[in-house]
Specification:
Strand content: under 5%
Mean pLDDT: 83
Structural class: mainly alpha
Keywords: Membrane, Transmembrane, Transmembrane helix
Shape: elongated
Order of helices and strands: HHHHH
Low-confidence stretches: none
């Protein structure tokens, strides 16, 4: 159990892994915007108008996730912070995707 605690509190992560983490968060953050445009594809103007608030929320959330990932890239942070950032990002993707799909089907 102490080994797990030490690994979560460690701040020594190789630079290539931190860059990979940042790039994966960037790709995951932009994915909701792809979902919004894909769901609005049959009638683009009407679909984007229906989901305009969700697109705004997606943009703000993507900027926040990118800012947090940038901070984690440039500063030494514990591994549990990286794990929690990844968990938060994935949970937002799930709720956002469900919301956009349900709203576009309404």
């Amino acid at each position: 159990m102490n080994k797990l605690k030490d690994e979560l509190l460690a701040t020594s992560l190789p630079a290539w892994r931190k860059k990979g983490f940042f790039l994966s968060i960037a790709a995951i953050s932009l994915f909701p915007l792809f979902i919004a445009f894909y769901s609005a594809r049959p009638d683009l103007a009407e679909g984007l108008w229906k989901t305009r608030h969700l697109i705004g929320i997606g943009l703000v959330q993507a900027l926040a996730q990118l800012a947090l990932a940038w901070y984690a890239l440039k500063n030494p942070v514990p591994n549990y912070v990286l794990l929690s950032l990844l968990t938060i990002t994935l949970m937002f993707q799930v709720t956002y995707g469900i919301s956009v799909i349900l709203l576009s089907l309404a």
